Amino acid sequence: MTRKQTAIIILNGFLGSGKTTLLQSLIEKEHALGHKVGVIMNELGETSIDSFAIPEGTPMKEMANGCVCCTLQGELSKQLVTLAEEYPLDVIFIETTGAAHPVDVMDACTHPLLTSNLWIKAVITVVNAIQWLEQKMSIKLKKLLKAQVQYADVILINKTDLVHEEQHHSVFESLKATNPNAVLLSRSEQELSTLETLLSRTRRLNKPLEKAHVHDQLHIHTFTVKLPYPLEKQSFLDFIQSLGPKIFRVKGFVQLEGQHDVFLFNYSYQSALFEKWPSYCDPVLVFIGENMDKDDILSSLEKLKVERKKLQ
């Protein structure tokens, strides 16, 4: 009996661009169509955070503490095979770390073990409008950001509320010039009706780009901090905002003083968000950034703890 063909859709985009929010919408659309969906979540940190956003009952594999484009490339191939063998899926979504080079991710998805039953249907890249406009990062990371756009079939311009109309137009034209073959959509167009467009395109593979190892060449690193104590909200936010542009993402679960609930915390590109979480999770923070001073960050967190004790 011939095994069912399963489509792979790769969700790419730089750290904090909004991939997980898009993934939730895509899963909802696929379920509405009666399709069976699987998910592979890849995170640089040793603790997975974004996987909590995936609907319960969705077949999922988590790949933490590494990037699918380098240290976990072989693992990605294995997880794809396992998902396809365990479940009769119509589509598998792969959400990359954001520091992943699209060529290497696609390479892992075209392993000889996969080609007869799995095929890459599309690469969707999510772009943070103001991040693309300002590009406050190293030259190597700028090349990575450009590569993620060059290899996309669909480009979703996200967080357009942070730029004015003229800047939005500039971002649109720049992305179009970088990849004239992609479908460009803005956040305002990200309605259920447009998701069919996102999912209907068969990808085109362009010329290969220079590979880049996330740790050795791009200088993006990650570390996880356990927080067995509550934080004073404003002091914590002041600390986060002081980290500067080299910290691309901070995410995790935190306890706040005076609150019984645990909050899901997300910080990316000068924007912080707390979301009350319905169940208890061990408080932990994952930091992702370029040339981070880990000792300085740990020291600053420890000072927040001391200040909290003094207030008691």
CATH class of the largest domain equals: Alpha Beta
Under the CATH scheme, which architecture of the largest domain would be assigned? 3-Layer(aba) Sandwich
Within CATH, the superfamily of the largest domain carries the name P-loop containing nucleotide triphosphate hydrolases
Which fold name is given in CATH as the topology of the largest domain?
Rossmann fold
Low-pLDDT stretches are 204-215
Helix and strand composition category? alpha/beta
Rg over CA atoms: 20 Å
Strands of the largest sheet, in order across it? 3-2-4-1-5-6-7
Please give the domain count: 2
Beta-strand portion reads 25-35%
Question: What oligomeric state do these chains adopt?
Answer: single chain
The helix/strand series, from N terminus to C terminus, equals: EHEEHEHEHHEHEHEHEEEEH
* Count of beta strands: 12
What is the terminal-to-terminal distance?
Answer: 68 Å
Q: Considering DSSP H and I runs of 4 or more, what fraction of the residues is helical? A: 25-40%
How does the major sheet shape up? 7 strands, parallel
Q: Give the overall pLDDT as a whole number.
A: 78
Shape: globular
| Count, helices | 9
